[in-house]
Amino acid sequence: PAGEGFKQLQDVRDRIEISSWIGKQLRADVRGVSQSALKNSHAIQMSSDIRGETHVDELTLLVREAGRSGLTLVHYRLDEETGELIRESRMAWARDRVKSDDMVLGKVSSFDVEVMDKNGQWKQRLAPFSQQATFSWPRALRVSVLQGEKKQQWVMPIYQGLQ
Question: Residue 115 in contact with residue 157, Cβ under 8 Å?
Fold first, then answer.
C-alpha cells in the first residue's frame, strides 16, 4: 500500500511538471508572435482534427524567438503513435531540407487549439489569410491538452494585433 501511494504521488507530480512546461513554452511563443512583410508567411496557422473527445490539432506560429536572429517558424503537433506533444522550430526562411529543432513537451492524449475572433467568439478554425481582404488578428489563443484524465487549459492574449 505505501508503495502504491508513492507511485500515485509521483504520477501527479509528473503531470504537473509536464503541464507547467507546456504552458510556459506556449506562452513564450504566443508572446513572440510576429507578422512578416512577406505575403506567403502567416503569423498564425492552425488545423483542427476532432475525433470524438480527442483533438489532434496543429498550431504553427511565426515568432521572434530569443537568441535567434530573424523569425522562427514554430509548429506544435501531437504525434499519434507515441502520444507526445512535439514542438518543432526552425528559421522561417530556411530551406525545407534544413532539420528543425524538435522538443518533446510530454505525453498527452488530446491537443485542442482555438482562436478568439474580433467578436469574442471561440473558433476551431482560422480563416485562411488568402481569403481575407485585410488581415485580422485574433484576440486570443486557447489551448487545451488532456493528460490521462486531467485537462489543462491556457488562454493567452495576442498582443501583436491590438490596436
Answer: no
All residues at 6 or more sequence positions from 93 whose CB lies less than 8 Å from its CB, including other chains = 70, 71
Q: Which three cell numbers stand for residue 118?
A: 474580433
Burial category of 88 from C-beta neighbours within 10 Å (exposed 0-12, middle 13-18, buried 19 and up): middle
Task: Tell me which residue has cell 508572435.
Answer: 33
Position 18, amino acid:
I
Neighbours of 48 (CB within 10 A): 15
* Residue whose cell numbers read 488578428: 137
**Helix, strand or coil, per DSSP, at residue 83:** coil
pLDDT in tens, 67-119: 778 899 999 999 999 999 999 999 888 887 889 999 999 899 999 999 998 88
Pairing of strands 50-51, 44-47: unpaired
